[in-house]
Each structure stands twice: as C-alpha cells, then as structure tokens.
Fold:
Amino acid sequence: MTTRRLVGAAILIALAAAPALGQVSYSRLLNADDEPEAWLMYSGNYKSERFSRLDQINKDNVSGLRPAWIYQTGTTGRVEVTPLVADGVMYIAEPPSTIAALDAHTGRRLWRYDPLVPDETLNIGFPRTNRGIAILGDTLFFGTLDARLIALDRTQGDVRWITQIADNAVGYAVTAAPLAVDGKVIVGISGGEAGVRGFLDAYDAETGELAWRWWSIPAEGEPGNDTWGGDSWKTGGGATWLTGSYDPDLGLLYWPIGNPAPDWNGDSRPGDNLYTDSLVALDVNTGEMKWYFQYTPHDVHDWDANQIPVLVDAEWEGSMRKLVIHANRNAFYYVLDRETGQFLRATQYATQTWAERIDENGRPVRVPNMEPSEEGTLVWPSLAGSTNWYSPAYDPDRMSLFVPTREMSSIYFKSEAEYEPGTPFLGGGERRPDADETYGAVRALDALTGELKWEFKQLTPAVSGVMATAGGVVFSGTQEGNLFALDADTGEALWDFYVGGGVRAAPMSFSLNGQQFVSIAAGQSIFTFAVAPGADAGGNDD
Amino acid sequence: MRTMKPGGLALLAALLLAAPAATQPLADASADDVAHGQRVFDIHCSRCHGLGGVGGEGPNLMRENLRRAVEDDALIEIVDDGIDGTDMPGHGSLNTREIRNVAAYVRSLGVAPREELPGDPVAGKELYDMTLCSTCHITNGEGIALGPDLSDVGLLRGSAFLRESIQDPPKVVNRRYRTVLVETADSRTVMGVRTGEDTFTLQMIDEAGRHRSFRKSDLREFQLLPDESMMMSYADFTDAELNDLVSYLMTLRGPEGGSE
Structure:
C-alpha cells in the first residue's frame, strides 16, 4: 500500500512538473523545418511553404501508399481543415467549429470540444466550417463561426479562455486558422459578403486580451479613406479570412485582404477601395502597416486576394532578396520584395480576359467593358477565380510553386445592392456558361518568373490545396473525390485513391517512429496514408 | 399554463407583426414586383424555361400545379437553390428581392391553354414502337435505359425542343448523356454513354447495355464525341411523322397521367 501510494505521488509530481505533452514553444514554431515529424501550423511553417521535409515517401514507393486509418467526423458539413500534429497527437476541426484530438497512430479520438455554435449563426458567403487551429505552448487556438476565439488546453480540451472578437449578427465569423507567434495569436475574420468592415486582430496568448487591431479599410481622416465614396468604407468588406505568413527577422506579418463589398456592383464605392484585394505587411508587435500592394483595384468580380502568400529568399537580378510570391485569384502570379512591397514581376498563369497587362507598377491595365452588367458579361476567370484559398505548395529545392488552378469563365451579373446588417450585400453574381471546356490543374510555376514548368490536368476546376515534399512528390485532390500524388519534376501522376467525397482541403505530412504519413480531409472524414512496411525504403527489390 | 400565456401572446404578436413581408402569398405580389420578376426571369430563366415560361429545354411553367413547388416557400427555395439531381441550377446571383419577384412572376403565369399540336398521338405511339425508341428509352417502365427516361417528357420539355431533339440530336443532346469512345490498350474500341467520370477513371454503359469501368491510364485513347450522339438522327421523318411523334411524346406526363 505504502509503496503504491508513493509511486502514485511520484507520478503526480512528475505530471505537475512537466506537461504530459511537450510544450510547443515559440522556438519550435520558428524552427518547424527542423521538426518535419510534426506539422505545427496551418501552412507548415511561417513562410507558408506547405513543404514537408520528410522524404521517406518518394517517387519510387508512393505507388504503394495505402490507408493507415480513417477518422469519420460523423457530421454532414464540409471538413476543410488542415490537421496539426504534435508529439503523436493530431488536432482537427470539424464543422462548424468543433475541435477534436486524435491519436495520430490509429486515428482514434482522444477528446472533442464543441463550442455549441447556435443554429441561427450567420455564414454569409462561406460554408459553416473551420479550416484550422494554431498551437503555442500547451494551448490550441481556434475561431468559431459565431466569431469567438477560444484557447483550449491540448491535453484534454479544457477551456483556458474565450474572447468574443466580433458580432456575428452583422456577419462576422471565423473560419481561418489563427497564426501563433511569440506570445500572440493572430486571427482574421470572414464576412465580406455581408458588408462587414474587415480587420486583423492580435490577442495575448496567455490572457485572450486584444493586443492590437488593424482595420483593413481606413477610417475617415486616415490615408486611403479617399479611395472610397461617401460612407461606403463602413460596409466595404476587406475580410481577412485566410491565414497569412510571417517573417520573424523582419517582424512582419503578410496578410492577404478580401474583396470590397458589395461584390459585383461598385457604383457606391468609386475609387481603388484600399486595402481590399491587397497584400499588407504589418508590424507583428503593433499592427502598424509597413506597406501594401493592391492586386485588383476597384474589384467588381469578387477576386479577393485571400490566397496564401509564400515567403522566398532568392537571388533576384544578382543579389539576394527577401521575396513574397502570390498566385492571385485574378489569374496573375506576382513577385514582390517583402521588405518594401516593391512590385517586381507579374506573369499570367491562367486564362483571363479582363486585363491587357500588368503595368510596371503592378497595376492592371484593364480591358474595357468587362464589368458585370444586368444582362450578363462573360469574363475569365470565373467568380471563384483562377485559384482561391486552396493552398499552393512551394518546393525550395526546385524553386517551384505548385498552384491549384481553375480554368473557367463566368457570366457576371450586376444588380442593385442595399446594405442591411446581417444579410448578403452582393449586387449581382455569376452564372456558369454552358461549356465543357472548364477544367482544373496543378500547375508548377517557376517561382522567379512565374513561367509554367508543367501542369497536371484535372477533370474539374481545383478546390483542393497542394503539398510538396522532400521526397519529390506533390499531393493534392479533386472535387470528384480523388487524392493523387505527382512527380514534382514532371507532373506525372504516380498514385491515386478514390475517397468517395470531394476534397476541399490541403494535405499535410508527419511521421511517427520513423514512418511517414500523409493526411488530408475529404468528404466528412480525415484520411491518413502510409507506405506499407516492406513496400518502403525505395522499393527496388521487387 | 398561466405563466406560459403571456409569452405565448408575445410570440403571437411578434409573429403577426413580422408576418406581412415574410408570408404574403406570392399570388398577392404587386404588379411592379411581378414586372421586375419578369425582367429577371427573361435574363436568367428563359434560356431553359422559354420566354413567358412556355418551356423548352426546361419544363413549361404555365401549369396549374408545379409538382415540386406547390407551396410558395418551395418555389422560392427552388429559385434559390435549384433542384438536386436535375438540370435546374441555383441562381447564383440573385438577391432576396429578385428571388421573390421571380417566384411571384412564375406564380402569375397562369395556365397555358393546352397546346394544339398538329399531329396524331396514336399514330405517334405506333411510330415510337416501330422506330424502336424503347431500345434506348424507358417510357412508363418499359424499354432500355440508355438515354433519358421519357415517362414525363411532356411535362419536362416543350414541343419545339422535342422536335429539334429528334431531328437534330447533337445540337440538343443532354450533357448528362455524352457519348464516349474508348480504345483499350489491346486495340479494342468501346462506344457507350458516359455514366461517370473523374480525373482518373471513366464509367459507361456500352452499346450492349453493360456497365463498363476503365482507368484512363490503361486506355490508348478516349474521347467524348462532341458532334455525334448515341441517338440517331431522324431527319428523314416526314413532317407528318414528326408531328405525330411529338404529339405522342407531349402526352407523356408521368405516372399520374394528366395530373399537372
């Protein structure tokens, strides 16, 4: 008895002294590339490369990839999360805003936290889903559809704090994964289609208190407000609904900004509508804007800039430059200097009919009469754009950006738009033309020139993100329900697997006890694959 | 009971106050709203339903009873979201007012007088049987399901569209029934109707009515045939024959016969 009690006490003391799971320190986040067995943030690292340094699954053995386990959420909503994996545990989000922890070895659920999002919660312009989680220390951070930011202890899913960050009654919501930095949690909001005024927030990771807020549309008296007519800035959209990137050396966050509202009728908002459809660089400590670059001034096609900006250090015209690259919804690929925001290059990577060219300052020279109209205007690309929030992947060895691409046009309609809080503020929309020639692709672009290296065609326009790996294999999915692996050098399909549900998420990779896994959400489930033991290690024996 | 009463009354009052806008029957919509609905209909709906809702590639809407939209709410929902499993799409671009006014316009269409068709449906039925239409179409439970079921084609399509379909099928053949031609690695060719496709695989019914499935990477070649159709052209029908056949097809109005 006595001995057993002593042992019990010793275990308790040990548990109290160190968390059951290791701390995911800021230093681990900074050095995520050195820990490829984990997946510690939405896009894999602060540069948003979505590139796994694991190379066990390679071109030779990927054809032997088989399901290791499948986790069924049991929901009917869309599962669009990129899972995190740390210390043998996977963390996922289920629709609308539920968090679950799974044993990464088996897929068995360890715990689940449901924030009880009310049924009447608004989701105007986006699905009732959650795309990811941030982790720092022993805490998970995620947003809810009804615009709360919640911190959970990752051991059992117990609540540490809950902060209401905005009012869902006017359309604000959180679907994006927050980004955890040193002591802070950065979180963007959705709701542009309801005519909210966008912002980006930073919260103290310990307390949940607001550290700073940056409004994506300048208020009266602030520079840029004159790019809006009248009071249109108050309902101008500019949502921040996709996770941005971070350069710890420069202390800058790079966040893509959403479209102006109303989407397809720009009459009430004459001007460029800053900082909609822009990339902004914000001081991580203060939220102060260092620079901005606007891709699509005065947008009337809903071509927001909510695509992942990827940070690349490379030689540019003879000297090393810190760059940020961005395949934009508007069909152009951009290279910018991320210290200054200087425009360096734009290259068309998908079919478009709206711009003659991008001028030397990065501003589009527009084709006349491409605006939405009452009777309809045919324009490429479609409303969902040449790409969208679906993550690209950057392979630093090959200097290739793999872009999920959509080849599709729309007939754009314009209608009246009247702002009423908590209702759609659109002013039109699209109709798909009758055409069979729409298709999707993964396109490999040269990161510096934007030139096409290869493409892998898909039957339907892409809705799934892409992951690249050090094994030279690129993973993605289709909305028909295929997962597939491509040769990073040629685009040749090396493996595919039908999961029976559309793939609307991005893959990630991790390893356990020396075995590499690839996971992706599809349909209502999480699928995890591995090369069966015996079929790995190059697979040259058979 | 007592404590519930005030709450119940308040709720009732709230419902009554909120009621007029939300539950006003579509049939009571103002002339302005109906006219606005017509403008929107002409742009977005007439391509399939015809100007004035007389039907075409899509159903004639000038009927006493829209089967899927007996209630106003159902009609509004169809305009908003479309009908799953059919060619009726959601609008994709209309605001709440436009949706409601389109629905009000559809309600205002009234019942078209039954179209006077020049042909003889009885002779048309004989021609249908003689021409072996049932080797590809099911009608009232009989036939082979290679092409679309025609059991209620008289409700779903307009007569002009049917006439054109018979004379010149490639122009109007339903995109869900695309003809596909594959050549296998061992040089066999198989033609059929596509029943499924994804980025990596293809499913079809071959000319013998058998289900087939292929991995695209195993095929030497495969193509959707854009300018041909499984359906033969019946351009050599006489005008009278065509009239008879269309008249017969327009009598096909589903299991309940004439219940529109």
About this structure: Chain A touches chain B through 31 residues (CB under 8 Å). Residues 2-531 of chain A form a domain with the Methanol Dehydrogenase; Chain A fold (CATH 2.140.10.10).
